[in-house]
Amino acid sequence: MFEDIYSFLELKGFKKKGNSLYRAEARQIHVIDFQRSHFGNGIYVNLAIWLNDLGEAKYPKEQICHIRTRLDLLCPKELEICKLLSTDFNIENAQRDERLKYCLENYAFPFFVEFSSGESIKKQLSTNTQRKVLILKSVYEYYGLVLSKR
């Protein structure tokens, strides 16, 4: 179902391993993971960042990464990304792939850029008010910031 998407992501520097794709950057690893829903015919696109300053890993599982989110949380509701990724949604594969590429280009890749350096991570840590991104406590501690309780 996602062969064209895998090829697209490989052109962007990602390497496929299982249901996940990995891209090694200077001090971090970007992860895109395709996860089947346990409650229906949907697929989630999980996005994650492993910070090498907090530990070395070549292919970290998405669920243990330091910074995590889902593509559907970043995309505007009108893009209907959850519907798009459901096998119940009647759409041609080429159209699904084009819409998914659009979402990856405009929402997933900017997510990785927003957390691409120590300074940008600190900025995101201090302004992460929308709670669309899960950031482990160890990241706050590493950058000398206090995790506020809300």
What report would you give on this structure?
By secondary structure, this protein is α+β, with helices and mostly antiparallel strands. The chain has one domain. It has helices spanning 3-11, 71-74, 81-84, 93-114, 118-127, 137-142; strands at residues 15-17, 20-24, 28-36, 43-51, 67-70, 134-135. It has a 6-stranded antiparallel beta sheet. β3 and β4 (43-51) form a beta hairpin. The chain starts with a helix and ends in an 8-residue tail after the last helix.
Q: In brief, what are we looking at here?
A:
This protein is α+β, with helices and mostly antiparallel strands and 150 residues long. The chain contains 6 helices and 6 strands, in the order αβββββααααβα.
